[in-house]
Write a structure and sequence with these properties.
Layout lengths: L1 H21 L10 E7 L5 E9 L6 H7 L1 H8 L12 H13 L3 H4 L4 H22 L9 H7 L3 H4 L9 H4 L3 H19 L8 H30 L5 H8 L8 H22 L19 H10 L11 H10 L16 H4 L2 E3 L1 H10 L4 H4 L3 E2 H10 L2 E5 L4 E6 L12 E5 L6 E2 L1 H15 L6 E3 L2
Parallel strand pairs: 3-9
Antiparallel strand pairs: 1-2, 4-8, 5-6, 6-7
Helix pairs in contact: 1-6, 2-3, 3-4, 10-11, 17-19
Keywords: Signal
């Protein structure tokens, strides 16, 4: 139990560091960070940029009054074992209260990926508190003693003489070479991509950039595998640990890339197609026939004479229009009615309640969460089957025929919340945006079945 407690403490520190590393990527807090050029060897100019936080004279009290959300993120970096720092449970309670009573613009400052990082940190902290509350407290064991007595996979990774285990142990010469190649193949190549409309040159450039990224991850997997073999892990353990950096080998990723490239090619070919001129004026097939304004100008130059009866093009157009039977049934292939205006999908009350929370229209609905099991049952009512996709990921696969405006492949991957079995309102709203993007869902598309 003491070894488990030590493991959980270290994992809380790792997750706290992960949250801190993700913070500069958020647009709402990017102004607090700056990239500085690293010192190269022998005074040479280096291409490496180091991220540093700008110093600020603002005190914690001033930060609390000016930006409570940033104050929370600063306090979250505290060590859970130091009494001078706020407890993480209290901080998460503050975040939940702050977001529930904030405007949607304030909620949008944190994206879905950052919420997932916070969820992981909360899960590890809750396990740490549970262990500490259900056993007598004793003196914490030393890391060397635990490494010698424990032989599970997680402790083998700590044998690399690093306080956080494998995460930093793979930073050796091979990885430095991989990072240099990635800089040339991605960052430099990205700045040289053609601008404006997408073309075949643009598509070839993006394919080259993607190949450089995939080569980077292939090399990183090679280096990581060599490091893991030093720990005497089984082949299955090594495969499981490398799965997190093998996303580009999954069938879902390959299919998504192929679909995206086909869409770009179709758009490029459509742009190359010649435009067809449509005749909008009837009454004369002679290309050199003078226009009405030209005839009027010529008539003014002549002396007044007896007017000559001429054929009026407007009358000819009216005659042609009068021959059209406007009472006939319209051709369904011409300008078909918009599905969003005519199709309504009747769903069960359980599914309709979930739809109202995915697409809220009132402050009360925006502040409500949803039980995960209720969400799964609601998706089942709409002919979706839930399958485990690894870890907390759950794939919802369309089963049967469900009429929708768009077709996102008939499936979507969502992450099950933990440690609590309840979906936060902010997460629900982000899921709603993804449903609209891939399936064309909107609240007005569904009605409560009678």
């Amino acid at each position: 139990m003491s070894a488990l407690e030590l493991l959980l403490v270290n994992r809380v520190l790792v997750q706290t560091a992960a949250v801190e590393e993700k913070l500069p990527d958020l647009a709402a807090f990017r102004h607090n960070w700056i990239y500085e050029v690293a010192d190269g060897p022998a005074g040479a100019k280096s291409q490496i940029r180091i991220l540093r936080k700008k110093t600020s004279p603002v005190s914690q009290l001033e930060l609390w009054e000016k930006d409570p959300l940033e104050w929370f993120l600063v306090q979250l970096k505290g060590n859970p074992d130091l009494q001078t720092h706020y407890d993480h449970a209290m901080l998460f309670s503050f975040l939940e209260y702050h977001m529930a009573n904030s405007h949607r613009k304030e909620k949008a400052r944190l994206d879905e990926n950052f919420y997932r990082k916070l969820s992981d940190l909360s899960a590890w902290h809750e396990m740490l508190v549970a262990v500490r509350l259900h056993r007598p407290q004793n003196i914490a064991r030393h890391i060397n003693e635990v490494q010698n007595s424990e032989h599970r996979r997680c402790w083998k990774t700590f044998a690399l003489n690093h306080p956080f285990g494998l995460e930093e142990a793979t930073a050796h010469k091979e990885n430095i070479a991989l990072g240099t190649a990635l800089h040339k193949g991605f960052y430099d190549a990205y700045s040289k991509l053609p601008t404006g409309k997408k073309s075949t040159e643009w598509l070839a450039g993006t394919q080259a950039i993607r190949e450089s990224i995939e080569r980077f991850w292939a090399g990183f997997r090679y280096c990581s595998k060599a490091t893991l073999k030093q720990l005497n892990l089984s082949d299955q353990d090594i495969t499981d640990l490398l799965e997190v950096i093998s996303a580009n080998l999954t069938p879902e990723y390959i299919l998504a890339i192929e679909t995206e490239e086909k869409e770009h090619l179709a758009a490029i070919e459509a742009a190359k197609a010649p435009s067809v001129s449509i005749q909008t004026e009837w009454g004369s097939n002679t290309p050199d026939a003078p226009s009405q304004s030209t005839r009027n100008r010529n008539r003014k130059r002549k002396n007044k004479s007896q007017p000559v009866a001429e054929s009026d093009p407007t009358e000819e157009v009216s005659a042609k229009i009068s021959e059209i039977d406007i009472t006939a049934a319209p051709d369904p292939t011409i300008n078909p009615p918009s599905p969003s205006l005519t199709i309504r999908l009747p769903v069960s009350k359980r599914a309709y309640d979930a739809i109202t929370l995915l697409f809220p229209q009132s402050p009360e609905e925006s502040a409500k969460g949803l039980d995960w099991n209720s969400f799964v049952h609601a998706m089942a009512d709409m002919n979706f089957v839930a399958r485990n996709a690894g870890g907390s990921a759950v794939r919802f696969q369309k089963n049967g025929s469900v009429t929708m405006e768009k077709d996102g492949g008939g499936k979507i991957v969502l992450h099950r919340p933990h440690p609590e079995n309840r979906v936060d309102p902010v997460i629900l709203h982000s899921w709603g945006k993804r449903m609209k993007k891939w399936f064309g869902w909107e609240r007005e598309l569904f009605v409560l079945e009678q």
